[in-house]
Amino acid sequence: MKSDIEISRDADLMHITELANNLGLKQEHCEPYGHYKAKVSLDSIEDLKDRPDGRMVLVTATTPTPFGEGKTVNTIAITMGLNTIGKNAISCIRQPSMGPVFGIKGGAAGGGYAQVVPMEDFNLHLTGDIHAISSAHNLGSAALDTRIFHEEREGYEAFEKRTGLKALRIDPKRITWRRVVDHNDRALRHITVGEQTPGTPKNMNGVPRTEGFDITVGSELMAILALATSLKDMRERFGKVIMAYNHDGEPVTAEDLQVAGSMAVIMKEALKPTLMQNLEGGASFVHAGPFANIAHGNSSIVADKIALKLGDYVVTEAGFGSDMGYEKYCNIKVRAGGKSPDVVAIVCSLRGLKSHSGDFQVVAGRDLDPGMIDPNLPALEKGVANLHFHINNVKKYGVPAVVTINRFPQDTQEELDWLMAKAKELGAEGVAISEGFIHGGEGCMNVAKEIDRVCNEKKAYFNYLYNVEDDISTKLNELATKGYGGNKVVISELAQKQIADLEAKGYGNLPVCMAKTQLSVSHDPALKGEPTDFDVPVREVRLSAGAGFVYALCGTIMTMPGLGSKPGYMKIDLDDDGNIMNLS
Amino acid sequence: MKSDIEISRDADLMHITELANNLGLKQEHCEPYGHYKAKVSLDSIEDLKDRPDGRMVLVTATTPTPFGEGKTVNTIAITMGLNTIGKNAISCIRQPSMGPVFGIKGGAAGGGYAQVVPMEDFNLHLTGDIHAISSAHNLGSAALDTRIFHEEREGYEAFEKRTGLKALRIDPKRITWRRVVDHNDRALRHITVGEQTPGTPKNMNGVPRTEGFDITVGSELMAILALATSLKDMRERFGKVIMAYNHDGEPVTAEDLQVAGSMAVIMKEALKPTLMQNLEGGASFVHAGPFANIAHGNSSIVADKIALKLGDYVVTEAGFGSDMGYEKYCNIKVRAGGKSPDVVAIVCSLRGLKSHSGDFQVVAGRDLDPGMIDPNLPALEKGVANLHFHINNVKKYGVPAVVTINRFPQDTQEELDWLMAKAKELGAEGVAISEGFIHGGEGCMNVAKEIDRVCNEKKAYFNYLYNVEDDISTKLNELATKGYGGNKVVISELAQKQIADLEAKGYGNLPVCMAKTQLSVSHDPALKGEPTDFDVPVREVRLSAGAGFVYALCGTIMTMPGLGSKPGYMKIDLDDDGNIMNLS
């Protein structure tokens, strides 16, 4: 089989303006970026407002191995499959960070015959949104350090007198706004800025302080991009972003620094979703890509809004397993204005479920244990508990579940048949096998038919998991128990203090975003399958005031990845004709 | 008069594909980025190869005040003026950094009725080239620190054994590749990276070392972008970039780190120049913007190449006065493959020349002394020596000079007449007054006619200032004497050692790029007018092996600006309709 980039390059692509035209978008609302990408103006929403909304298909997965279960592939394949059976379906997916692209992971545009194309454009720059986030975010940082520099050098009173500005009296030890860069760069995790340049006077470079860089997609601005419902909403949220605290412990926002407007100016174009196409000519919006732990892990509300007006079905992917991206979709994104799902596809694989038997060690970068690839019904029977959790979890929100089995070449029909029957027994409203990777839409027709059948037969009665008006501890406990099946939440002393402080400042009625491992339903990556009898420890609670949620840390979340000793970039190059080699 | 952004917004713009079509570009070679910008493929050069090249008009200026003499305005106005008199003229200008846009300077797209539009697009992101440079550059940095991390942690031998890679044995104290960000951010000038994150094991974040960020446009990759003649050439130059030295003092290149290919992949699209339009519908290529001190200060060779095939005249702007950007155009850019100028326009103003009398202190951010604005022939008579220098300097390279007087509202006809006559007397082949700022092309017709007349009457016989095969000290001395009119170059002991080392390593026959102040013809900003009897001290000599020049530091060159206490970003915002306010 050809490599992903070869398949992408050999594809016969439609000009993006033609695709936009076919969808019913006006030319003035479609700004091409090259021949195969276009930004779509938010004015199109107003223009299309009389059309009915399509159905929302959310694609989630069982608890993933480090290899992934093929969720993006199947998001695209399901879209293609729905188009193959005569529906009008559109994908809404996230834009990947360039860090992992050059690190280890390679492309994130799907794979095989279920890709968004051109995959190089998808994986590199796209239409510049992540660059815009880096720029807007780091302008905020420059504004912060500049203000500290001027106020501290002059003294607060003299500063106020000279400039006519109110001194913000920022505490350099309580800065919450780290800088960002869209690379895997561990040397920037912990740094000291504002040091004296040798040979220059002291204090010329500001006030020395510890600092660090996160990868750009971890920026709160990314979460805001995904949750904003309009340019005005995005601008207002930027103003609320807390960058530091002053010497009295009061928050200092981007509005206080008078930089929120410029940050919004830098991100004005970034709020327009990017339209691309899949290998079969179907439409795909690519927009935003927040973390699924410290943020909510879903693509943008504005992309969904436009797509829902243009398609019968919108197929969107949520990060990690259903305890992560799907939970956050329901409890955070829907509350911010997203459409609740009409049906959920749970992607799983024989090998993935076998890993949940607990019999195997799965390590990124090493080959899979043959016991997970070869027929092994006992392991499958043990591991299927994880699927049970996710089917139940999806249905908790009143949404029907269709289990989508991502078939791999060595999978036997016997085990597949067993899993199909078992999925039904565990409560799935539908189940089918996907061969989208090798056969595209045709390989995913059966899944598409199941999704369409379930949608027609079973209406979703969506409900949230918790009452957002409850206090923060109660909401955390609801997630720990109803959300993950644990006994209770255990909140550290530090977190209790932080919660009291947040509630006193009026942030108590925000949704909570649990920053926990994706490798287990629980907080502990070692607990496979469907763990029971565990407590969920919350170490720390933080605030994303602009994005509009409180997030709770259940462990250490890496916000700046590192690079291995043989990173992906070593092989990526241009060939003699200027084509990109070895991107996937 | 309306503000720049109002004029830009009220303009009736042509769709960029229509403009490209009118120019004779094939649709497949023109990739629109929105409705008013397009990237032009380098394949168009091959396609147009049978067309003759147009004439190259280089726009330079007298030694600038901190306010600038209106060089960009007149580059665009001359283009418009040439079009007004029936020629087919195209501008090739530099892309501005976003740092100064949000710092103090505002937009850089020209001004008044001589602008490239839409000015917001010009000043923000454009088509993402500078973002691509930041990304490619910082991937190089991540590769460098990653390699040090892995080699030092494991030990060279164990590293080689495990990975099969040759240990590079990089000296963390001899790293020449600083990181970059496209903001004015003084806190990043001098930092320590790779520090331990509290609560994590030691050495998890690499080897702590001092580091710093430059503003992105100061990256060697920017100089390469401007000098590369093809994608292949850019890729090869990236490979030669020196990022550090090993413990034996041998250079470690991007090729050694196996990251040059990925850097080129990230910048593949950036090598395509961006086509925009001016307020009168003329074409303007915007591409690259290297510093004019540590680099050569001119827009790209590839943009020129395309424009020369499409226009009778290409009008391009070189950074700062003729001792800076023009000198480097001639001695560096032409040697790399740029077309030598057919005529040079020297932009000057009454106020600018009066400042060279030495009678006034000009400080950025403060109002000009009325003695420079009001009639003041004695000051003008003293200051005109600076124009004398620049006319002579231009002609030294065998190129005719047309003095372009940028008229300001209070300028008297008497002083203008005096200057016109004087310019001729000083050897200018042509002279005319420009009112491009308030009248666009019509206001610059007289300059356009002079340029056209001089081009028809006087062929340029271009010659370089120095022989590139001479040794580095000789070349530096040629610049100090023939280039600036000084007595001789004085090379510090440190620089002498560096020169010996560079020559021993085979870099002796590269052109030299003088990194000196732009505020004087000499190395000393206090020496106004046409200074004589001075030595040019060279403090340090460095190498840009990828860009292909040696650069000599005559003073401290700021590679990371700071922000004032009331930066431009404080006023820039979105209005209720989503329009950008206060950008200029």
Automatic annotation (TrEMBL), chains A, B:
Keywords: ATP-binding, Ligase, Nucleotide-binding, One-carbon metabolism
Pfam family, one: FTHFS
One GO MF term: formate-tetrahydrofolate ligase activity
InterPro entries: Formate_THF_ligase, Formate_THF_ligase_CS, P-loop_NTPase
Highest taxon in the source lineage: Bacteria
EC number, UniProt record: 6.3.4.3
Keyword Acyltransferase part of the UniProt annotation: no
PROSITE patterns per record: FTHFS_1 (PS00721)
EC main group: ligase
Binding, ATP: 65-72
Functional pathway: One-carbon metabolism; tetrahydrofolate interconversion
Catalyses which reaction(s): (6S)-5,6,7,8-tetrahydrofolate + formate + ATP = (6R)-10-formyltetrahydrofolate + ADP + phosphate
Family: Belongs to the formate--tetrahydrofolate ligase family.
Name of the molecule in the record: Formate--tetrahydrofolate ligase
